[in-house]
Predict the 3D structure of the following.
Amino acid sequence: MFLLLAALQVGAPAQLPQVTLEDALRLGTRLEPGYVTALGQVRDAAWQRRAAYAAFVLPSISLQTSATRFSTEFFNIGTGQPASQIVQLSLTANYDLFRGGAKFFELAQARAQLEQADAGATEQRYRTALLIESDYYDVLAQQELTRVAESRVGRAEEQLGVARARVVSGAAVQTDSLQLLLELTRARVDLLRQRSRLTVARLQLGRRIGAAGPVAAAPIDAGIAPSLSLTADEIVREALDSGPTFQSALASARAAAAGVRSGWSLYLPQVSLTGQYAAFDERFIPTLVTRTSLGLTVTIPIWDAGRREISLAQAQSRREIAYAIRDDTERQIRRDAVEAFEAYNTARASARLADQGVLVARENLRVQEQRYRAGASMILNLVTAQVSLTEAEADVVQARYSTRLALAGLEAILGRRFSTNVRQQ
């Protein structure tokens, strides 16, 4: 056991690369696959909106050329001469003058899809930030818990020396030193496990920010966080008004509704204007005969084997699903916002009580040490007091970083960071 502890101390790196929380958020966000995917969806939606705008002013243009050689000569209709080879070139432009309002509906749908993508990217960014902060705070918590475990070992060693001296002097029985030796062994085992957890936490933080190995977290002020200036009702209202999760659901519902309106436009006549430039020759770049044409096409849809009706029915189903998701998301946001608000306040209160618990545990240990030295207390009371202090110190560490993590969860719901003063305190 002692050899393993010594080996772990020797093998521990003397100094690890250290990262601040701001740098971790900056590095980790751009590496998170979910956020990278969300940014790609924003770019795709932006191009769809550009295409929807372009449909109002730009025609569709195509260029086509072909060359054909025949075994015998034939009369080339394009050139009006016999030939064994024909080369054709055509440049066609088509502009939809009227599509039953589909252009406007498709533009509305593209706008809503871009809003949905933007809200989704914001939501994913704060979710990623929550994951990064969770790993960052885990490293800090494990560092402090390691110091707590080291303090436990130090106290156990000190008390073991006192117990042995009392046993030698005849003031205590040998079981006292055995009890403290057992406590020291348990403390050393716990220290080994705690150092292992710290190593894993540093590796996880390194993975999150793109490092090949473990990374240490720069210390932050983990004192008691202040109360928020917002009430629970204000938190819910802000989450619904500007929170990315609900805004994404609203945009999805608007896009689905625009899709239904676009489906109804298929029942209306469509008018398109077509212009074409054509050239014919026997050479690859035809210039012998050229023709231009301009045409107006009116299409009245009557029956297309039910494909129009199927498309409309599918659009209506997507709209109903989007509406249901929107309504359920609103109810979920109301619950999640209150839960995050209460979690933050509970964590704050728990941290304050945990601080009081440490003071009580330290005083209890001091009294038990004095009583044991005076022979007025049993060794089990002293060991219990030592363990209680270790647990109280660990509770403080967990409570403080739980408060910061709860604040990050609340920020993820609201889609914004709180003021620097709130986060620093």
The CA atoms of residues 361 and 393 lie 9 Å apart. The first helix runs from residue 2 to 11. Confidence is low (pLDDT under 50) at residues 1-13.
